[in-house]
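Q: Hi! Curious about what Scavenger receptor class B member 1 looks like structurally. Here's the sequence.
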Amino acid sequence: MKPVQWVKILLCLILAGLSVFLFVVSCGVDYRILVAREHIRFRQEMPTMDSWINSPFGKLKSYVFNVTNAEEFRSGRDNRLKVKEIGPIVYRIVGFNDILDRNETNVKYRKHRYRVVEFLPEESVAPDVLNWTITSTNNVILGAATKVKHTAPLAAFGFDAALMMEDIFVTDSIYYFLWEFTRPLLQTLSRISNIRPNVAVLFNALKEKEEVYTVNIGPERGIENFFRIETLNDEVIIREQLPHTRRYDSNSCPFNVSGALDNSLFPPFVQPDTPLDIVAIESCRVLPLTYQRQERYSGLDTFRYTLLQPYQKPPGCLDTSYGVKLPDGMFDVSQCVINDAPSAFSMPHFYGSSYNWSQHYEGYTPNAEDHEAYILLEPVTGIPVTEKYRFQSNIPIPDLRRFSSRLTRFSNMMIPSFWYEFEMGQLPGFVIALMWINVNIVPHMQPYCMVLFLVLALWSALKAIRVACGDLGYAGLCRKFCGDVVTALETKFQATNDSLDVAVK
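A: Let's find out. The predicted structure is below.
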């Protein structure tokens, strides 16, 4: 035989052997598991890596409340504050995950949530909305009164005299309340203490926080443990909550990050009863996700999870803020905000809260569609496809009867500062396409691939034999290896034909 024939035979035999090997391997594995094991290796070459590195990405929508009857409330003519919501005030947000260290079982990275913050005037309620003038409660005085009532109640008698130059309502631009809110009291105190003078909500909410995560990756840790947190800032307890752990059992308080997730990636093959918790860094706690229902999104079947259930009782370590017992559907975040100010988070417009807001306000319209926080998660890949992260920041006010009449009117109220919604951006089209293939093609392709491997192995073996026999065709090959049988069949058929000829004659 010529050398080229030997090459052909060798290549065919290699292809046949490889096909047999792939068929045997396919008999003992699940293609979905193979794909998942590659996904959780978290390689730099992953097609979804770029989206993760530049996350979180999306739009931050802020809403503020304008008090329309400040004079009437101050004078006592109105017993309830009338508020009008203004928003959205939209900002584009792009984060960045900087990988610090990586091995086969974990990856350590620093999360920069707000690398890009860009105002989007055309997507806001009006391009000049930041210049609009609104009236708001003076949350500096109200927050200070709450702290004084809790820490030094006897100082209440001189509190109002010291702040007699401060109005209980403040009128200024929306930009001022979001980015530059300061008062003479804060400026004075900042010179003699660690109190920060600027308490504007977005100025402080979008400040960089130290977030260094160490998370599990790789098959050795198990598919179900992919991207579950080992440590945050080299601790298992959220740093701001360490003082609480001395007073409460850390197992009953949502401060331990071990096994939680950072909300960027989740384990594959999630089931409705799979325990999922995320680190909510802006509220310095771990939030459990609650499965709600299945929902179709971008051609994918997803699981919808809520971040806070209506009327959910807060943990015992977060049910009080500076002596004020919080209603259901709220939790304390005072350890996590500027100047340790009295603060509690709820869903927007007090949706899902047992607080009777209608006793103190007019103008809120709580409803699930606009105010419920949720995440849509594709369960096979464990990739979130969208989320609307919604929370409202409130100041819980105690009974202020020992204070002046202008403060007493705010007794037992919850004073909203603002509320926000982070809407996750659309995933790139190729990522959605890969997810669709993983969900809809991979689970059904295994039997077809196994048949293909068998056919390919048979064809390759026959091709090698044909080449070895001088490039015979299939008919010639059949005569060569089955000559006697073919000859016998031809003789029989010939005899039958002769008999028919005789019968016809």
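A: A fun detail: The longest strand covers residues 81-102.
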